[in-house]
Here is the input.
Amino acid sequence: MKVVTASGWFAARPSGTESIYKIYAESFKDQSHLNAIVSQAEEIVAALNSSSPRSDSRQDGNEREGPAIEFSSVRAGIPRLRFATARHLAALALRYRRRGTSRVILDRSSCPSWTKLVADVAARSHRLRQLAVSIVVVFRRNGLLISPDWLIEDELLRASDCQARTFPQYKIDYSAVIPFKHGLFERAWANFRAGARADLRPAYEQFRVDQAHWLEDYALFRALKIRFGAHITLNGPQSWCSAKQRRSTRFDPSRRIKSTKYASRSFCCSAKANGLKAHAHRKGLSLIGDLPFFVFS
Amino acid sequence: MDLLAAEITARTDKDPGEHYRELTAEFGKSYYTRIDAPATPEQKAKLRELSSEAVQASTLAGEPIKAKLTHAPGNNARSVA
Here is the structure.
């Protein structure tokens, strides 16, 4: 079906292959006219078919959850891109909300400024419209999340440790940044073991006890991953490494001490995640869950 | 579609984007979107079998509706299938 006016039209049709219908619309005036056409088109289709899922969800107020939009390559460490990303995510969240979908998954495993990104997205979606837009931000427990600034704040590194070299401002050279950060973690870990911030030690030991159900395996996995590289599979704790690899003569059990290093990174991530929660609460956002976070604005 | 775009570019020395810009300069800019919404097979069947009388509205986005088409004007084929 196609409905035509002097300066715009819409067409609605059922999909031939999927359980959806499609609305196509065009305006020769401007974006707001197009938006008006689309919303009226949705109403017309809903009225034609009073049992359509959209009208149902409107009546009972339940939010339908549609396919999530996933991002995996947002380099939000760069402020300019961070703002663009936040704007884009907020716009997408709104758009999908109108279609009964409001979940955006943002995989920011290597974004150093996710605190700001989350706040930006929330602020923008809030400003654009008073909608309960939910944005799911998935953080991996990746040590690379740890900002050198945090380690300096925590007095595990000196500022001079991080100034050893500079990186381009508008381009992330992962092959250079990753080894550099690992080097910083090594230094921070060495400082910690040598007695720096001894006051953190009880909290760290407690964290290892409390989180032992996953942490020891995970830390061992990280250590094995460094040792065996790509031969370690990533499907879950049970398959992180084979029994053979665990027993491997090349893997001396004494190396297990190395895994404490990775446990310390998870500890640092966890402490910062709690900091993020507190930050979000101050901004009026509630974070539901631990990792991943479910952010509601 | 990609081959057509390649042929347009090869034959006219302008890519389809440039042609489009010329058209918008001549006729004005247009704003287009497409949205998908969930529908059950029954709902899809209803939408497919619609008659133009089913649309009660007389205006769309503040303008009088000029046409409600369920078949293509040229060959009377169903415009939505």
